[in-house]
Structure formats: C-alpha cells, structure tokens
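Our consortium's second objective concerns turning raw sequence data into structural hypotheses that experimental partners can test. To show how far this objective has progressed, the report includes one record in full. It was chosen at random from the queue rather than selected for favorable results. The single chain below, 151 residues long, was entered without modification.
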Amino acid sequence: MDKQDRAILEHIQSDASLSAGELAEKIGISKSACWRRLQKLSSDGIIKGRVAILDPEKLNLSLTVYISIRTNEHNDKWANKFQQVTQKIPGVLEVYRMSGDLDYLVKAVVADMKGYDDLYKQLIKADLFDVSSSFVMETMKQTNKLPLENF
C-alpha cells in the first residue's frame, strides 16, 4: 500500500459516496487508476464495504446500551447458540468475545427502556449466566475512521 492508497482510504472513510472521479481529483491521479486502486483495495479485503451512517436519534433509536455477559458454558455448542440468538436481534450492532472478567460484550441500540427490556428477553434465550448493562448518557467521541498514519 502506498501514499495514494492511503489517501483513497482517508477520503472514503470521511465520505464513502465519493465517485472514483472525485477521489482521483482529490488525490491527483487519473480516474481509471483510482478505480483500479479501489477495486484492488476491495478485492484484497481492505475495503469491506461502503455504508451510510445514520443518525439513531432521528430514527427513534436514542438509547445505546453496552451489555456485559458472562457464561458458565465455554463450548462450541453454546457459542453457536449465542451467535444465532444475537444475529437475529436487529438492535444488536456489535458482539465481541472478550478476555478478562467478562466473556462477551454486546453493543445495541433501542428506542427506550421498554425496547431494552424486549431485547433483553430475546438475548437471554441463549442461557446466560450473568448479564450487566450500561447505558450511554453522552457520546463524547464516535468514529469509524481507522488511523492510517502508521500504515
């Protein structure tokens, strides 16, 4: 990956709607060269997709919750069931298997406390041992941009 690839990635992290022509103009290469680079970055799996970032507040999903989960089951059968349960819950945005004191961390968005209770009732179908939830009161920083300066 060279300087031009990094520039492409920087620009599309800020605005994924930029066309190959617009990107090419911003970084000073031809449109066809930019398009080829975009295709290569995609085929190499560096660009996993392009999405629109929506405002959860305007979509009545103003409550973000982080759910800490511990389980007594540390086997493939339970992990598969847990994954199936979380995949089916629309409000679940991210699920991580963790090291340390907790086993899994789940990020979800819901409209309100009733929405959280509904989500919780779906989540516990995975036979959880211990569940603890923390609700976001204020978002101080949120970004999807990866730091590319050391690449």
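The partners drew two points from this record. The CA atoms of residues 48 and 105 lie 22 Å apart. The first helix runs from residue 3 to 14. Both points have been shared with the crystallography group to help prioritize constructs.
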